[in-house]
Every structure is written in structure tokens, then in C-alpha cells.
TrEMBL record, chain A:
Residues 211-338 form the HD domain. InterPro entries: HD/PDEase_dom, HD_domain, HD_GYP_dom. SUPFAM superfamilies: HD-domain/PDEase-like. It comes from candidate division WOR-3 bacterium. It comes from the Bacteria. CDD domains: HDc (cd00077). Residues 189-390 form the HD-GYP domain. This is HD domain-containing protein. Pfam families: HD_5.
Length: 457, 522
């Protein structure tokens, strides 16, 4: 039995039951029917799994140790359960064999209150087949990239392989495509364990390594969208490869052109546009022709085609409906390019503004559904965004809140007098008295988000 | 109890281990769809499942040339090229774990992957992509000595007014940060994207790849892109996707310096088309015929050989017509095949010459007029007729083979050659006419009707009403065929004769005419 699918089904049943107990009386048919279904489903699961545990850890929900991925299907139910557990300071709920319909209905209905009333009612309720473990407030706040060594290792190993691949093509040396394939596999596995951790690392912008960083970041972000879409592994491999190789044709352009710090002339612009067809040729050269590279070459060719059919390169038949992967890469490419310092754009767009740009151009440049998914993934204030709070303090976004895209988890890095401090990490969704004033440039306060992401070296 | 449990486990692994080795070897030798493999597979799978039912999982350790369970070797092969253990070890797999709940499909995919992955492929990646729920594996990754990461310094921006830049961007992009954003995906949107995912998983992208590469050729006519298109062409041919194969060749026509089909023009490749030409669907066959049209004249002799394997006549006709099209007006590529020792090839060559309708071909055909093989002579008749040299056909009426004679009569009926009328009439009147079979006799009368003039009805009337003293029964056939011929003509005079005949006292004439009139009524 697939734990992820089972968990997803169980969580959607639990979500429906909780919602119904908040609307109907406990003896209503709708409630009884749903509770009956959930008890029947649990009895079936007890045979295979024994006790069933729903655990919340670092903004993720685990179903019997399997992390539930946020996917577009079942997103609302998972988001709801995560929010309930967080609000009531519940670390885990365990369902035991012997669970009765009446017991689960009573339990579902007490989840409506606040954390104190829930704790009280749970103790008084005398539940035999439901166990709850509470979490402490301090434990509730996830540490920034805690246990992130493995994630860092994956990211930087991937960066090294990407660098060696692109450098190899630039200098016309042999490239190790086997290592490259393994990188995709590592990234997919790491994303399935902690997508926010890996996404956090894409915000480290190294001006000198733009080409390598950009390729990897587009690959990682594309894969993260792919996981939200619940793509099969084989499809993820294709998407990841396409994301990593989308700009590989730039190796055929001169570095003077790529790093020019003045606006491009129209001739230079035409030359730069050739990177899409050049990428196709480079992909074939690097990977040969199989279904993975065919997807990658089409994506590379179409990644500047807009959702409304405009963009470049021209297509002779004018059938410019980009494939799904090209539409995904289009968004990730634009976002990463906007948020990165470039010779012609030294001060980039703030991540929060880049997200808004995607929204303002959704339906024209970008696929509106994919923009929504990207926003669910990144939040309105993506990780490493620097924010000014209404307290006057400056903070860095360290983690997303899946239940509240506009209220991330932040670390205070400047006090109200803008003095550097090693402030606390706070969950803005739990702090009713603090709100975000606006995003700000970290440079203005001499804040280097990378230090917080990578830790002292 | 404990003793019993251990005994059971040991017994099971001892049963499983040799089955596992044999099954892997069978998969390597025969492939996983071969019945011999299945003979090994079924007991192996059953043994594994019963082990997992008792023990919940089975963890195998991988070493360079061996696979172990609890320190005991269960597979060993020291020949690198044959050793599955070596392939797994080389690709970093150190442990494989089978979990209770393993189904037959998963185990089959696992065996298929470890036994059939090409040498240069990475088994770890192939297994990983299979995403098997009840088989885990542990892979050691190469350790990188120095990942070379350091905290990048913030670029320094002197004289930048961050506030100004912030508001400048908001204005330029017309963004209001206070505007609410709702990224909730509606049920309709969810359905839309899910449908697209399912469709994109199934949809082959070859067609789009061809469009992409041919578009690129306009800006970047690199040999690499051309070579890739030719590689895709090969892929299409192997997958019998001749529609896309034709598209590639068509697109590359703009580059006359490139011989797209060079790789496929050789005899071996063309003859190999015979492997599928009888089994593919009509639609695919039509695509194939269209694709054949792109081959150059010099490949015609190879195709002539390939056509000999085509079982369906209509398919062979379509292919021959395509070859005639390839040759355009040039009979030279075909002439060589007239000397081929395989008579089927010669027959095809003769038929194609007919389709080309070139008069100069007659000269080369003459040596086949009296060829000992009747199929060849039949092909000659057809070809001569198509070329328009009908005058050469009557000589085949005297051929020793009834099949050839019938073909000649049919051809003369179809193409009309009035000069043959008297010869046909004479033949009918001869006593030898009674010695030939009815189908041929019928063809004589058909030919007579087709090539007759005003004299025809009179001649038929004479034959119908002829007074016969001897051989009355034998002559019945001439009366019947004459009456049928008159029915075929069916004009006023013919009807009058038949009606008169129907009133005759001679029973043979009466019957023949009555039947002919009935035929007209029908």
C-alpha cells in the first residue's frame, strides 16, 4: 500500500469530517456518514499499519512517518490540517484500534476552539482510542535550515556538477553526463524530503556564478512545481533536466555579450535571442536523443514563448502553445532572472515584487494556474526576503507557512533602531500584533541573507 | 517457538536463493517476456512472497561480484560482463530491500531493469525511475572532496537610492502590494492541469521535436541539428512512424547538399522493411508508401527485392506504383532487375515498367515473351497493355498456358483491339475450342463482344442457330455462350434474335435463349 496516497485519502476524509462537525449537529446524517467512513477506513488501515499517527513537524505533515507533499490535489485539506495542528499546538494525533464513531465525532468538534479550550476538552473527553501529543511553543518554531547539511551538500554538489557541465561545454571539453543525471535524482529526492530547504538555497545569488546558479535554480524551482503537480518520477527527471539545461545554448554566445553592463543594441539583442536554438543543439550534443533530451530541447526552444503565443523564437506555423514544461520553466526562469543581480540590472527586483510581477503578467506571459502553484510554493514573501515590520524591526523570511502565504516565519535581524541583532524566529501567523509593513532591500541594511542561510563558515 | 521461526526463515531463503540466481540468468538470456524465463520467475516470486509474509522484508547486501543475505552468498558471478552484482556495485548500489506487499509487476520490473539495462546505463538511476513501492535500495554517492561553496559577498552599490529603486519598480510594473492575491486553484483549473499532465505523459513529442529542429535549421543550420534530425528519422523508421519520417525528409529537402536518406538506402535496410510490411495497419502502410517516395532511383533494385515479401496484392501494387513514381521517366534503374535470378524480382520489374508507360521498355521485354515461367509472361501482357502496345497481345492467345491465354483475352477485352476479331472467331469455330475449359471459352466470347463490329450480331446468330448434325451436346456450349453474348449486347437486334430463339423447337437453342432473356430481365 502506498503510504502517501493512503495518507492523502485519510487526510481528506478527516478534513471533511472536521468541517462537517463545525456546521452540523453530531447526530446529523452527513456527520455520521463521514465518521462511519473514516472509522471503516481506519479499521482497514490498522490491519496494515497498526496505530495511525498524524504528525506535524517543521510545517510538514507526516502520515505514519511519510511526509505528505503539498500537491495541487488535496492541497486545501492538507493546508487545513496543518493549520489546525499549528493553532492548537498539537504535535501529533494517534488513532488506535477500537476507535468508535461517537469518539471521532466528539474529537473533530473540539478542534474548533483555541488551544486552551481544546487542551481542556480533550482531557475531560476521556478518549480511549485517540492520543494527542502537544508541542511547546519553542519547539513549534522551526530552526533555519536545521539538519540542512545534507540539503546544502546536495545543492552545492549539484552546483559543482552544473558548473563543470557548462564550463566543459564552454571550453569544448568532454562532460560527465552520468554525474549530471545523478544530480537530477538527488535534487528530486531532496525536494521530496524538504522542498523549502532546497528552495531557500536558490536565493543565494552569486554574481560571479550567475550562469551556473541560474541554471540550477531554474532546475530546482521547476522540480518543486513538478512535485506540487504530483508528476511521476520519470516526468520529474525530464522536467529537472529541461530546467537545468534551458539556457545551455548561452555557451555559444560571447561572454562580452552575456556580461555586457550596458543596454543591448538591437543586433546584440537578436544575437542573444539565438540562445534558445543554440540550447537545443547543445542539449543534443550533451545528452544525445532520448525522451528526456527531446523534452529538454523542446522546453529550451520554447522557454521564451509566452502563454498568449507571443515571444521568441518565431515558429513558422505560428502554433505557439508552449508545452507544460516550457511554461513551468518560463516562470522559474523569469523569477530567478528578476531576483538576481545582472550586469545591466545591478539591483534586482525584490522577491516579493517578482512574485507580483508574475501575477500581473499571468494569462499574458505566464500560465495563470502555474503562477498560482508557484505562489503557493514560494509564498508572497519568498524565503530570504527582507521585510520591515510595523514594529520597526527588520526581519528575514526563513520559512514559508503553507497555511498562510502572506504570513511567513521570520528571523528578526535588525531592531527598531536598525541595529544588528540575533533576534528570535517568529511565526507571523501566530503573532496577531505584528504585521508586515513592506519588503525592503537587504542591502540597505547591510544584510546578507546568505549568511543566515549557510551559517557561519 | 523461536527455533521453529528460525528454521522456517532459513528454509525459505535456501529455497529462494537458487531460484533468484536462475531467474536473473534466465532474464539475462531470454528476456522477461520469454516463456522459459516465466518458468523460473513464477516459483522465484512465490518463494520471495512467502518469505516476506513471514519476515516482512528481505535485505540483500551487494558486493563486487556477490549478493548476500545475512552473510550468506545467494548470487555469485565473477565474469564482469555477466555479473549483475558487479553492475549493481559499479553503480553504487550497496543494499536492496524487498518489503512485504511486493507485487508481481514490481518484481518483474525490478528483474527487467537489472538484467536488461544497457551496459552504459546507470542501473541505480533506472531502478530509481521505476519508483517501486516495495523495493528500496541504498546507493553510495561519490564523495566530492571540495564542494567549493562559500558565502557570496553582497555586491556593493554606491549611490543607489533603494527607496527610489523600490518605488520605481512598483511604478514601472504597475504593482500595488496591497492588492490581495488568492492562489487557490479552482476545481476546474485542477481538472484542466491534471488532464494536461495525463495527456503530456502519453503524447510522443517526436512531431514537436521535428518542428523545433527544422525551425532551428533556418537560423542555425548546424551539422549537429541535421544529424539529430537524421537520428530522429532513424528512430521514426524503427518505430514505424513513417508520417514523421516523411516530414523530416520533406523539411530537409531545402538542403539539397544533405543526403538525408543515405544511411537508409542500402540493401540490408531496405530489405528489412519486409519484416513489418505485411503486419502494419493500412494507415501505417500508406504512410510507408508515401515515405518510400522519397528514396532515390538507385534504391529501386533493393525495393524490388523487398516487394517479393509482400503478401497482399494491393500492397504490392501500391509499392510498385511508388517505385514507378520514384523512377519518373527513367527505366534504367529497373532494367538491371530484369536480369535477377529471382523470378519474383523480375516479375516486379516488368510490372513497374508497365506502370511507367515507356515505349522503349518493349525492346527489353521481348526476351520475356516466351519466358518459360507463365507468371513472367502474364506480367509481360499486363505491361505491354499498359504501355499501349496492344498489337503485341494477340500472339499470347496461342500460348500453351491457359492462364496466360486467359490473361491475353481479358487484356484484349479490356483494351479493345478490333483487329483480333476474326482470329477470335476462327478460334471459336475450330473443333479445338471444345477442348478448352469453360472459363477460357467464356473469355473468348467476352473478347468477341468487346472487339466486334456490325458483323458481330450476325456471327452470334449464326453460331446460335447453327444446324448441327454431329456433336449436338458438345455444341450446346457455343449456343449458350452466343446467347449470353447477345444478352450482353442487349440491343434491339440482339433481343429479336433471342426472342426468336426462345420460340424454336430445337430444345438447345430454346433453352439457351430463354436463359439469356432471363439474364436480361434480372
Amino acid at each position: 500500500m502506498n503510504s502517501h496516497k493512503t495518507g492523502k485519502q485519510f487526510i481528506s476524509l478527516l478534513y471533511a469530517l472536521i468541517k462537517s462537525t463545525w456546521v452540523y449537529e453530531p447526530n446529523n446524517d452527513v456527520v455520521l456518514n463521514l465518521a462511519g467512513k473514516i472509522v471503516e477506513y481506519l479499521n482497514h488501515l490498522f490491519d496494515d499499519f497498526g496505530p495511525i499517527e498524524i504528525l506535524r513537524y517543521r510545517d510538514y505533515i507526516f502520515f505514519n512517518k511519510t511526509r505528505m507533499r503539498f500537491e495541487i490535489e488535496g492541497y486545501a485539506s492538507l493546508q487545513f490540517i496543518e493549520e489546525i495542528l499549528k493553532k492548537l499546538r498539537i504535535k501529533s494525533i494517534t488513532f488506535l484500534p477500537g476507535l468508535r464513531i461517537e469518539e471521532i465525532i466528539r474529537f473533530a468538534s473540539i478542534l474548533k476552539g483555541d488551544k486552551d479550550s481544546f487542551a481542556k476538552e480533550f482531557i475531560l473527553g476521556n478518549y480511549n482510542a485517540i492520543q494527542v501529543e502537544h508541542s511547546l511553543d519553542q519547539e513549534e518554531i522551526p530552526e533555519f535550515l536545521k539538519d540542512g547539511e545534507q540539503i546544502k551538500k546536495t545543492y552545492f554538489k549539484s552546483l559543482k556538477v552544473t558548473r563543470s557541465l557548462i564550463h566543459g561545454l564552454w571550453t569544448r571539453q568532454d562532460v560527465d553526463t552520468r554525474k549530471f543525471r545523478r544530480v537530477i535524482y538527488m535534487l528530486i529526492d531532496t525536494l521530496s524530503q524538504d522542498e523549502f530547504g532546497l528552495i531557500a538555497l536558490t536565493t543565494i545569488k552569486n554574481f560571479d556564478e550567475y550562469t551556473y546558479n541560474h541554471s540550477l535554480n531554474v532546475g530546482v524551482l521547476s522540480l518543486a512545481i513538478g512535485q506540487r503537480l504530483d508528476l511521476k518520477k520519470r516526468e520529474l527527471v525530464k522536467l529537472g533536466t529541461a530546467g537545468l539545461l534551458h539556457d545551455i545554448g548561452k555557451v555559444q554566445l560571447s561572454k562580452e555579450l552575456l556580461y555586457k553592463n550596458l543596454p543591448l543594441t538591437s543586433e546584440e539583442w537578436e544575437l542573444l535571442k539565438l540562445h534558445s536554438p543554440y540550447s537545443v543543439a547543445q542539449i543534443i550534443k550533451t545528452r544525445g536523443l532520448d525522451d528526456v533530451s527531446i523534452n529538454a530541447l523542446i522546453t529550451a526552444y520554447q522557454h521564451h514563448w509566452n502563454y498568449d503565443g507571443t515571444g521568441y523564437p518565431e515558429d513558422e506555423k505560428n502554433q505557439r502553445r508552449p508545452i507544460l514544461f516550457a511554461r513551468i520553466v518560463r516562470i522559474c526562469d523569469a523569477y530567478d532572472a528578476m531576483t538576481t543581480s545582472r550586469p545591466y540590472q545591478p539591483l534586482p527586483y525584490l522577491p516579493a515584487i517578482a512574485i507580483r510581477v508574475l501575477w500581473s503578467k499571468a494569462g499574458k506571459f505566464f500560465d495563470p494556474i502555474l503562477v498560482k502553484i508557484f505562489t503557493q510554493l514560494m509564498g508572497l514573501y519568498p524565503i530570504s526576503s527582507c521585510l520591515e515590520l510595523d514594529t520597526g524591526e527588520i526581519c528575514l523570511v526563513v520559512r514559508q507557512n503553507p497555511a498562510h502565504i502572506d504570513l511567513p516565519i521570520v528571523k528578526i535581524v535588525r531592531d527598531r533602531n536598525k541595529k544588528s541583532i540575533d533576534g528570535p524566529i517568529i511565526d507571523l501567523s501566530l503573532e496577531k500584533n505584528i504585521s508586515i509593513l513592506r519588503p525592503v532591500y537587504p542591502q540597505k541594511y547591510l544584510i546578507n541573507p546568505a549568511i543566515y542561510l549557510l551559517g557561519p563558515q | 517457538m523461536r527455533f521453529k521461526y528460525n528454521f522456517y526463515v532459513k528454509g525459505n531463503i535456501e529455497e529462494f536463493a537458487p531460484l533468484f540466481t536462475k531467474t536473473i540468468k534466465a532474464a539475462q538470456i531470454y528476456g522477461t517476456s520469454h516463456p522459459t524465463f516465466l518458468n523460473f520467475y513464477t516459483p522465484c516470486y512465490q518463494s520471495l512472497v512467502s518469505f516476506l509474509r513471514e519476515n516482512h522484508n528481505l535485505t540483500l547486501q551487494i558486493e563486487r561480484f556477490t549478493i548476500h543475505y545475512a552473510g550468506q552468498i545467494i548470487y555469485e558471478e565473477r565474469e564482469k560482463d555477466l555479473s549483475i552484482a558487479f553492475r549493481l556495485f559499479r553503480d553504487g548500489i550497496r543494499e536492496i530491500n524487498f518489503i512485504d506487499g511486493l507485487n508481481s509487476d514490481e518484481f518483474m520490473i525490478f528483474l527487467e531493469t537489472i538484467s536488461r539495462s544497457a551496459k552504459e546505463q546507470d542501473i541505480a538511476l533506472n531502478l530509481w525511475e521505476c519508483d517501486l513501492s516495495h523495493i528500496n535500495f541504498y546507493v553510495v554517492e561519490e564523495e566530492e572532496e571540495d564542494l567549493g561553496y562559500k558565502i557570496p559577498e553582497m555586491p556593493e552599490f554606491n549611490n543607489i537610492d533603494y527607496e527610489e529603486r523600490f518605488y520605481e519598480i512598483l511604478k514601472k510594473e504597475a504593482i500595488d502590494l496591497a492588492e490581495p492575491v488568492n492562489p487557490e486553484i479552482s476545481a476546474e483549473e485542477l481538472k484542466l492541469i491534471k488532464t494536461e499532465i495525463v495527456e503530456s505523459e502519453k503524447r510522443p513529442l517526436i512531431g514537436m521535436a521535428i518542428n523545433t529542429l527544422t525551425n532551428i535549421l533556418k537560423t542555425e543550420p548546424s551539422p549537429l541539428v541535421i544529424e539529430s534530425l537524421i537520428e530522429i528519422l532513424e528512430l521514426c523508421i524503427n518505430k514505424q512512424d513513417f508520417n514523421n519520417a516523411s516530414r523530416i525528409v520533406e523539411r530537409l529537402k531545402d538542403y539539397p547538399e544533405i543526403n538525408v536518406l543515405q544511411r537508409f538506402e542500402n540493401e540490408i535496410t531496405i530489405i528489412s522493411f519486409a519484416n513489418f510490411v505485411n503486419t502494419i495497419s493500412d494507415r501505417t502502410f500508406n504512410d510507408f508508401v508515401a515515405f518510400v517516395g522519397f528514396f532515390p532511383k538507385r534504391s529501386v533494385p533493393h525495393f524490388l527485392k523487398m516487394i517479393t515479401a509482400v503478401a497482399k496484392r494491393e500492397r504490392a501494387d501500391l509499392l510498385r506504383a511508388r517505385l514507378a513514381y520514384i523512377c519518373q521517366d527513367d527505366i534504367e534503374p529497373v532494367l538491371g532487375s530484369l536480369k535477377n535470378s529471382n523470378l519474383k524480382v523480375v516479375t516486379n520489374a516488368i510490372l513497374i515498367l508497365g506502370m511507367m508507360k515507356r515505349k522503349e521498355a518493349i525492346l527489353h521485354l521481348q526476351e520475356f515473351f516466351f519466358h518459360p515461367e507463365e507468371d513472367i509472361r502474364i506480367a509481360v501482357i499486363q505491361t505491354v497493355a499498359e504501355i499501349g502496345e496492344i498489337k503485341l497481345i494477340p500472339q499470347f492467345i496461342d500460348d500453351p498456358s491457359p492462364r496466360v491465354r486467359i490473361k491475353a483475352l481479358q487484356t484484349l477485352t479490356q483494351h479493345r483491339y478490333p483487329r483480333v476479331y476474326n482470329k477470335i472467331l476462327e478460334k471459336i469455330k475450330k473443333s479445338s475450342f471444345f477442348e478448352i475449359e469453360l472459363p477460357e471459352q467464356k473469355e473468348y466470347f467476352n473478347c468477341l463482344v468487346a472487339n466486334g463490329d456490325k458483323k458481330l450480331i450476325k456471327d452470334l446468330e449464326k453460331m446460335l442457330f447453327k444446324w448441327v448434325l454431329f456433336g449436338r451436346k458438345r455444341y450446346q456450349i457455343i449456343r449458350r455462350l452466343s446467347a449470353q453474348a447477345l444478352a450482353q449486347i442487349s440491343d434491339e437486334d440482339a433481343l429479336k434474335i433471342l426472342k426468336t430463339g426462345a420460340r424454336k423447337r430445337n430444345r438447345d437453342i430454346k433453352t439457351a435463349c430463354e436463359q439469356a432473356l432471363k439474364l436480361i430481365q434480372q
